[in-house]
Model the fold of this input.
Amino acid sequence: MVDKKDGCSKSEQRVGLASIMALMITDECINCDVCEPECPNDAIYMGLEIYEINPDKCTECVGHFDAPQCRQVCPVDCIPLNPEFTENQMQLMAKYQLLTAIINPDPTE
Ligand code: SF4
Ligand code: SF4
Done:
């Protein structure tokens, strides 16, 4: 069960896992197309059968929003934390800053 307010499941809140991993999409995805345009990092893409998340681009929305936007909109709650990509808040922020620099290498532009 995912709490729509912060996008985290009760078990994740209990063990303190919120905001320390990239996210993943499970095979419960119904390909509704809702999450892809909501991702500020363009981390969500159509895979072979269902949508997938590129962990190199997913910052859990750190740097952009207070909560993962894909989780906020997913109608079937099929976007849990990805246990293969553990990152702390500082690492997620560093990833955000790197992605931002790649997208806009000259901050004066
Ligand atoms: S948590 Fe944010 S950055 Fe990660 S896939 Fe979802 S919308 Fe994109
Ligand atoms: S919002 Fe959920 S069900 Fe819809 S495409 Fe994204 S992951 Fe799949």
Summary: The chain has one domain: 10-103. The first helix runs from residue 10 to 15. Residues 20 and 88 are 4 Å apart (CA to CA). The radius of gyration is 14 Å.
